[in-house]
Specification:
Number of helices: 10
Oligomer: single chain
Shape: elongated
Order of helices and strands: HHHHHHHHHH
Distance between the termini: 40 Å
Length: 261
């Protein structure tokens, strides 16, 4: 079951060209939604204005070698290992979701375009990575939603309380969960396969089509913001913030662990 390509089996009822067109449309929605958000919210203008201000107010310029080092640090610490999270549980949940989502999306694209029919046998590793990626998203996402999310863990709100900022994580969890259910039902030959396929496609369309209103595009903006922060610290401007205190304040007590994020 976990070594069969669910999209190749789907080609018996939906032509591969239709599946490939749908994937291309989702990619276009991601690009268009991100560009719309950049223009509508002025994110790029804000970023470059801050970058120029930091360079102008810096005590010393950042050279090419130092800039390359800062970029490597940003990629290794802030991007690949999510080093901005102080809370270990939140960090692990984020990494599970991030790498699971990457595996899930990349293998989907490869299987849909490279092995769209049973006539082109799919390497067993690809479906396994697809299932593993979707499961990682579910583990990290549901762990975050029910046990780590600050609204519930620190503020005591119900885990079922939903605001617009939750659109990305909820649509992501819905898409991967329904995708897993659909693939398993299809492998089992269930009569419910078509129903869950329709739900899966709807949730996936919401995920990739709601970028201007969700936090999806933050995955593109956060690395740039992390690099900007490192450059501001390196040139001495520190984003107009005072230098670190000699005696930093300590939160919490011996009896109560801090729950700040």
């Amino acid at each position: 079951m976990f070594t069969s390509n669910p999209f190749a089996a789907l080609s018996a009822s939906i032509p591969p060209a239709v599946m490939q067109t749908y994937v291309v449309v989702m990619i276009v929605l991601v690009a268009a939604g991100t560009l719309f958000e950049v223009v509508h919210k002025g994110s790029a203008k804000y970023f470059f204005d801050n970058w120029r201000n930091a360079n102008r107010k810096g005590a010393h310029p950042v050279g090419g070698g130092e800039m390359a080092s800062l970029m490597i640090q940003t990629a290794a610490v802030d991007v690949l290992t999510s080093g901005e999270f102080c809370n270990a549980r939140r960090r692990v949940a984020h990494l599970l979701t991030m790498y699971g989502f990457l595996a899930y999306v990349i293998t989907t694209v490869i299987m849909v375009f490279g092995y769209p029919t049973p006539g082109t046998p799919t390497p067993a590793i690809l479906p396994r990575l697809w299932y593993l990626g979707a499961l990682m998203v579910c583990v990290g996402g549901y762990w975050f939603w029910f046990f780590i999310r600050v609204d519930g863990a620190a503020e005591g709100n119900s885990p079922f309380r939903i605001v617009r900022a939750d659109l990305f994580i909820l649509s992501l969890l819905t898409s991967t969960t329904l995708g897993l259910i659909w693939a398993l039902l299809q492998a089992a030959g269930s009569s419910w396969t078509s129903v869950f396929l329709a739900l899966y496609l709807f949730a996936t369309t919401v995920l990739f089509g709601s970028i201007p209103w969700s936090k999806f595009s933050h995955m593109f903006f956060k690395p740039a913001a992390a690099l900007q922060k490192r450059v501001a610290e390196a040139n001495g401007s520190r984003s107009n913030l005072p230098p670190p205190a000699d005696m930093p304040e300590k939160f919490g007590s011996a009896r109560t662990l801090p729950r700040h994020y």
